[in-house]
Design a protein that fits this description.
By secondary structure, this protein is mainly alpha-helical. The protein contains 3 helices and 2 strands. Strands 1-2 form a two-stranded antiparallel ribbon. The model has no long low-confidence stretch (mean pLDDT 88).
Amino acid sequence: MPTFDGDVIDSASAADVVDSLRLALLVTYLQSELYARAVSATGFVAAADSVVFSTIAVHETQHVGLLATLITARGGASLARPAFDFTAKGALPGFAFAAGQYETFRM
C-alpha cells in the first residue's frame, strides 16, 4: 500500500505511476497512429465525418505529448513510438485505409 506524506508519494508508488503513464502512452500512440493514418488517407474518411476524425487525430497527438512530458517530469524515460500493424498480423489482409474499408475502420 502506498504511503503519502502531503504531496509526496513513496518511491514504489512513483514507479507505479510512471509505469501507468507508459501504458497510457502506448495506448495513446496506437490511437494517434490510427487516426493520423485515417485522416491522411485521401478519400478514406467520409466527408461528413472529416472534422470529427481530424479533431480526434489532433487531440491524440496532444495526448502523446502530454503523457511523454508527464513521464519525463517524474524522472522516467518515455517510450519510443512503436510500429503498428493494422492488418492484425494479416487477419485483415489488405487493410490499408483504402476506399471501401471505412466501415471496417469505424468498427
